[in-house]
From TrEMBL:
Protein name: GDP-fucose protein O-fucosyltransferase 2
Keywords: Carbohydrate metabolism, Endoplasmic reticulum, Fucose metabolism, Glycosyltransferase, Signal, Transferase
Cellular component annotations (GO), alphabetically ordered: endoplasmic reticulum
GO-annotated molecular function: peptide-O-fucosyltransferase activity
Classification via InterPro entries: GDP-Fuc_O-FucTrfase, OFUT2-like
Gene label: OFUT2
Protein family: Belongs to the glycosyltransferase 68 family.
Pathway listed: Protein modification; protein glycosylation
Species name: Ceratitis capitata
Length: 456
């Protein structure tokens, strides 16, 4: 009897506690940032979140013309920084806010809505969050509304820092880390950054800053801000950094870099489409490829036994590379000759081409690759294209290249570099990954991409 009463009272308590508050946002926030102290009193969740002292949101954006894959690298610089910063007082409640994706220069499908896209369109944000406290922009709006700030139509940004390089990086031949306010700064000239076009943001102060050094120097800048008399309250603070690409990695290619990189898994729908394509068109599947892919990145271990699908994958960067980097970018004819030679050497009969080439260039490439089994991903319907958008199509290309038996990329393309990294995570032998198309098929004077192996 006693036991029965206990069970009934437990059930009642569970029903009461789940009914007492909006479970979706509250549970999510608890799970995200492990607000453990709240777990016993879930029904008070919004209030206790409101008590987070010194909550600081760091917004950022990158120079508008920069492409998708440099932006991914800038994210890693900031994620590593924020993770470490959050361990130190008074930054325990710092959050990095992911900038909405504006329409990038390379996203050419003008009929599609590709404006203000969340990171969750392309990435598994929950996976990234297990590395560092990051929020998609809409999550930031939700989160900050817990403080009642959405009662007014604006979110006040205490200070927007627009970063510039120093003109002279070396003082008497020495590189010093430093930043310096530029007194002549006309805000009106710098409002084209996509972040500032978010209508709910209202910048209280706008500061132009010369900046030279690693991302850790941002810690000094934030500390300086917090020490400012006007800031010494427990209120929520929002800062923004524009041109965050000026900030350098603390350590490029170390364990922390790779942890942040591994946490950047792609959004599940894109992974699935790439998988189905490999199965259908390339006769490949997970069992054959034998790559390392545990359900969560935290379970990945040093591994060098991936086999990959039975195809060669090549990333042929055209567009601005073909026009502006003629000394290192091969002609299509030269690329085709190199592809044939590599296929023969490796005894492969199928080549997968990832490229931003125009329709005309593709026709030419096919002509140069006659009698070669060439494959290229295109969305199977307009509906699928509207779902994945130009950015997702590029990621599917990267995923298919990442799972190939052998890969060749383009010199100094960040698109290629992200494929190298993906293959390092999946566990391929280096010689199957770090390959570069040469300018000339003869390989004389060839410039190769750098090799950055994975570190655990
Ligand atoms: N779908 C697809 N898009 C590509 C490919 N190569 C380049 N692009 C597009 O062009 C952009 C290139 O810019 P970015 O990401 O900065 O890489 P980078 O300029 O090569 O260093 C990509 O983000 C894509 O939008 C490709 O192989 N496939
Ligand atoms: Mg680029």
């Amino acid at each position: 009897m006693c036991r029965l009463l206990l069970v009934i009272s437990c059930l009642a308590a569970i029903i009461l506690s789940t009914a007492a508050y909006d479970t979706t946002t509250c549970d999510k926030l608890q799970e995200i940032f492990s607000l453990k102290e709240n777990q016993l009193t879930k029904h008070q969740c919004p209030k206790s979140i409101g008590k987070r002292a010194n909550t600081i949101y760091l917004l950022y954006d990158v120079n508008p013309p920069e492409g998708f894959n440099l932006r991914r690298d800038v994210y890693i610089r900031l994620a590593v920084f924020i993770r470490q910063l959050a361990r130190r007082k008074p930054f325990q409640n710092v959050r990095l806010v992911l900038p909405p994706w504006g329409r990038l220069f390379h996203w050419k499908s003008s009929h599609l809505h590709q404006y203000s896209l969340p990171w969750s369109q392309f990435f598994d944000v929950a996976s990234m969050r297990r590395y560092a406290p990051v929020l998609d922009f809409s999550e930031f709006l939700d989160d900050i509304s817990k403080f009642g700030l959405l009662e007014t139509p604006y979110i006040q940004v205490q200070n927007v820092f627009k970063l510039f390089h120093f003109q002279d990086m070396f003082e008497q031949g020495v590189f010093h880390e430093k930043f310096q306010i530029i007194s002549e700064c006309r805000k009106e000239e710098h409002l084209h950054d996509f972040l500032l076009q978010q209508p709910m943001l209202w910048e209280k102060n706008f500061t132009c800053l010369r900046y030279q050094g690693s991302v850790n120097l941002l810690g000094d800048l934030l500390r300086q801000q917090l020490n400012h008399a006007a800031m010494q309250t427990n209120d929520v603070k929002v800062f923004a950094i524009l041109n965050a690409e000026v900030v350098l990695h603390d350590q490029w290619g170390d364990r922390e870099f790779w942890r942040a990189r591994r946490s950047m898994r792609f959004a599940e729908p894109l992974v699935k489409i790439a998988e189905e394509y490999r199965m259908r068109e390339l006769n490949s599947n997970k069992a054959l490829e034998r790559v390392q892919r545990p359900p969560i990145w935290e379970e990945e271990r040093p591994f060098r036994a991936a086999v990959g699908g039975n195809y060669l994958a090549v990333h042929i960067r055209r567009g601005d590379f073909a026009r502006g980097r003629q000394n290192t970018t091969p002609t299509l004819k030269s690329a085709a000759t190199q592809i044939r030679a590599r296929m023969e050497l490796l005894n492969l009969t199928t080549v997968y081409i990832a490229t931003d080439a125009s329709g005309m260039e593709l026709t030419n490439l096919k002509a140069y690759l006659q009698r070669v089994r060439m494959r290229r991903f295109t969305p199977e319907s307009l509906a699928q294209k509207a779902l994945i958008l130009d950015g997702g199509q590029a990621i599917i290309d990267q995923l298919i290249c990442a799972h190939a038996r052998h890969f060749i990329g383009t010199f100094e393309s960040t698109f290629t570099y992200r494929i190298y990294e993906e293959r390092e995570i999946l566990g391929f032998l280096r010689k199957t990954t770090f390959n570069t198309l040469c300018k000339n098929a003869s390989r004389g004077n060839c410039e190769y991409n750098s090799i950055w192996p994975i570190v655990y």
